[in-house]
Amino acid sequence: MDTVRIFDTTLRDGEQSPGISLDVTEKLEIADQLARLGVDVIEAGFPIASDGDFESVEAIAKAVKGPIITALSRTGFKDVDRAWEAVRHAEKPRIHVFIATSKIHMEKKLRMTPEQVKHEAEAAVARAKGYVDDVEFSPEDGYRSDPVFMCEVCQIAVDKGATTLNIPDTVGFAVPEDYGRLIKYVIDTVKGDFVVSTHCHNDLGLAVANSLAGVSNGARQVECAINGLGERAGNAALEEVVMAIRTRRDYFDAVDVNVRSEELSRTSRMVARLTGYHVQYNKAVVGRNAFAHEAGIHQHGVLADRETYEIIDASTVGQEAAQIVLGKHSGRHAFADTLEKMGIHVQGDALNSAFVRFKELADKKVAITDADLEAIIAEELGSGMVHRYGLHELEVRGGTSIPPSARVVLTDADGKIEATGTGDGMIDAAIAAIGAATGVQGTLGNFQVSSVTGGADALGAVAVTVDAEGRKVTGRGVATDVVEASARAYLNAVNKLVRLRGRDEVRETTVGP
Length: 513
Ligand code: KIV
Ligand code: ZN
Hints:
513 residues; Recoverin, domain 1; Double Stranded RNA Binding Domain; 3 domains; 8-stranded parallel β-barrel; 3-stranded antiparallel sheet; 16 helices; binds 3-methyl-2-oxobutanoic acid; binds zinc ion
């Protein structure tokens, strides 16, 4: 049985989705979970793109063990060198070099002749190979390229040492049969020892189908992203590719994947929470309704035998009906123990403040599920640090005839700070009061509300982006009340800003004139 390597590009192609901007700690959290999920390759970023990208790839390369860690690179030597600098500490580093081979990309974007493209590919792969054995090459827009020319470039890359050839359908134009044929053509045409990989975008909703057609025709690596994130309509959804291969063992009888599928739902929730890209309810495999049965006839069937209407056992993807894990009588020990079992490692002050927050919520909500716990921990520890300000009290007034106003009491190391504010609505008033208490006056950008689990006492999760002091930061908050969740999200963003400001001050005093 062959292994199909799962190459996750959530942190690179996925992070290119509009509006997603993850900081280093958030990327590390996702990379850790991807390792736990058992992906074979993590594409951690595009180091030349920005200092932040470089820092994240380097941090992941240093900390995350298990999967191959790769960085993307154009063909310029500066790119290749920077990619190597970022991944070189990894247990298993890889450099992923790409250059476009389609006529339109070569003429309009690169302004290069086909001969120049060949030369670029040759030089870049050789440069990467000088650093590391594991080199991947992608002819960008491969599906729309002349297959003969594309294979000539791929042959050059293999001759220079590339061990993986990835064939991107960059603009999501492929249809399964045709994409499968192209994969077979590459395997039959290019000579050497290499693995062929798929990289399919979802512009026509065919990314997963195309990737699987690639597998049927000999591809042994699939590039995909959690929840199908990625440029425009996204990449092939990792969870769908994995579960198609696992569920249809009868059809994909020659292959398997290394992924621990029970971690799929948790990974999906984490990525949704950190990116702010919510998963549609009816999304295959990880959607909230993927295992819900509404019609009486279906419910009856499932009760008699699950397989009447379910082709996947929910527990194999970690989707069993939101487990009740803790209640208000649970102690600190049980709390810490449950977090450990969920793979969340929290200690010291961070554990204390997370426990206090858990107790506050347990007073309002009868049963705390694992999804609730993840949300609480994300709010308390989103940035891996204990926060400067805590929310002690929030009082809001408003309605159809009373102007909205709010009073907050915050805590910090010096004690308590009280302030009031007014606004267009109660959330606006609460934010104004927090601004007055902390001295941070930001502008609210994105504002998203979702419920963590179902039911009347569901936790509301709010994610906001705040522009202040020339920066944009994301804050998250959870509570059983949406105004409180919003205030917490805003305060969370303020805490991040205050910390970033502190870091800049330290830098200025250490590197200043
Ligand atoms: O879609 C694409 O072509 C890519 C390459 C850089 C692999 O993301
Ligand atoms: Zn892509």
